[in-house]
Amino acid sequence: MLIYLAGPDVFLPDAIEIGRRKQAICARHGLTGLYPLDNAFDAATPELSLEIFRANEAMMIKASAIIANLTPFRGPSADAGTVYELGFMAGRGKLCLGYCNDPLPYPRRIAARGEVTARDGVLHDAHGHVVEDFGLADNLMIAHALDLHGCALVTPQQAPDDLWHDLAAFEACVRLAATRLVQAQAPR
Amino acid sequence: MLIYLAGPDVFLPDAIEIGRRKQAICARHGLTGLYPLDNAFDAATPELSLEIFRANEAMMIKASAIIANLTPFRGPSADAGTVYELGFMAGRGKLCLGYCNDPLPYPRRIAARGEVTARDGVLHDAHGHVVEDFGLADNLMIAHALDLHGCALVTPQQAPDDLWHDLAAFEACVRLAATRLVQAQAPR
């Protein structure tokens, strides 16, 4: 059973090693993790970024599920490329799972990066833009996509010491995916 | 022909007025804009955020195309909810269009919000995470989703004075959508 491993992990200095660790965890649970960096490209490839896109899309189309690392990246929300991929998989009716190593609700994540003020019972950021306040970890489209197209977002009780290398929440997603995908295959 | 109007516009203080302006532009080009705030909810609705998700998803499923406002929001990338919706529509094979009122390439957007340094020919942000440097406006999944599932990202030559209220790039998308959707309907 193929699982697409989405996340900003690919931008970390040890991106390849993290992919191998994630794939080893998948294998222990009887699943095969597809990691974007498995697609090797020559740096001289013409239209390299387009080829990377095509290869990632082909991996997603092959996979039965996505596990997205939705830990905030360069702002209070998840990595934009990862969120695109979550949407793509939801749109195609695939099983959607995700984890976030930052357990703070969205307004507190924004407050940690700038001022959040209440006006007439509504929260606003420093630019005067409304801040969603539903007790969710990120934009409601992300949180509820997981609820309705897969499994609820997995977050730790407390942020781990190393946000980018702690894979406990990832492994919880793998366990959920293994159970759900086996159920889906069982004869009725 | 129904077009889903995605964007962080819904978080602006004059969100309803912007939606009306966008819908008027669509109507002038023979299209019908579906705007998330058209779904009215009582603030006391149980599970309000889930109902908003369901209503947005139903709108997307009805629409033939999406026009996403991909102007950077709370960071160097587009709004996470909008990007999820772009992915969802691409996954369902709908026509994907988007615009961005900030014409800077992605590394310069990141540099505007913190340090970007080159090491061994690769750009890194202040956290040591690799910065994509393909001359694109945002994460490559977003930019190339538009190239391959619709029309290339529309950006102005120069950022308009008012990033959030200037609708020239939006109108360019509406024009492209009108042409493409009429072509798709024409007998072959």
From TrEMBL, chains A, B:
Keyword Transferase part of the UniProt annotation: yes
Pfam family, one: Nuc_deoxyrib_tr
Transmembrane segments: none
Protein keywords: Transferase
Domain of life: Bacteria
GO MF: 5-hydroxymethyl-dUMP N-hydrolase activity; transferase activity
Biological process according to GO: deoxyribonucleoside monophosphate catabolic process
Protein name stated in the entry: Nucleoside 2-deoxyribosyltransferase
Organism name: Rhodopseudomonas rhenobacensis
